[in-house]
Amino acid sequence: MMFLPFLFTLSFLFFSSNALDFCVGDLNAPQGPAGYSCKKTEEVTVNDFIFSGLRAAGNTSNLVKLAVTPASSTQFPGVNGLGISVARIDLDVGGRGLMHTRPDATEVVVVIQGTLCAGFISSTNKVYIKTLEEGDVMAFPQGLMHFVINVGETQALAFSSYSSASPGVYFMDYAWFANDLPTNILHEITFLDPDQIKKLKALLGGTG
């Protein structure tokens, strides 16, 4: 009766010893759709699994008064292939994360300091919006447009986790107004006044 458990233990050890435990990204190699190729195991160190870049606040001296400090596979090679990454989000008073999507990841944000208004829009155009206080957590499903705004009277801090080592980001405002898509075309597809379009293009660096 003790023979079968013994065989099970041996088989587990055999297969686990041949499994690939991790794939630390080789940042000197090109990044493909599946991430970076694996660094040689003998070159992997504990430092590949450590990232200290989230200790310090990001620079919020910009148009949106927000800084996102990512710890994805590009900065944190140990998460390559693990389907997870994190980021630090600093927001000055009035800071905002403009409407955007994460095409490759679901996001979970936890408020560490301050008060945020956060929300997302479903594919049926239903809006889910909530004021978040310290300790609150909210999920933004993969691919859906979402935003955060610091509605408090102090600087806000949050941390996000993503279900991808390389979650990607797509900002709607920049996609429309930070390029050379002609104003007359934008007018036709958005119903916005051409003067307003030109103003937004000037604000975000677009032309046309």
TrEMBL record:
Residues 1-19 form the signal peptide. One of its GO terms (cellular component) is extracellular matrix. This is Germin-like protein. Residues 52-198 form the Cupin type-1 domain. CDD domains: cupin_OxOx. SMART domains: Cupin_1. It is found in: Secreted, Extracellular space, Apoplast. GO terms for molecular function: manganese ion binding. Pfam families: Cupin_1 (PF00190). Keywords: Apoplast, Disulfide bond, Glycoprotein, Manganese, Metal-binding, Secreted, Signal. Transmembrane segments: none annotated. Oxalate binds at residue 107. Mn(2+) binds at residues 100, 107, 146. InterPro entries: Cupin_1, Germin, RmlC-like_jellyroll, RmlC_Cupin_sf. Belongs to the germin family. Its main location: secreted. The keyword Manganese applies.
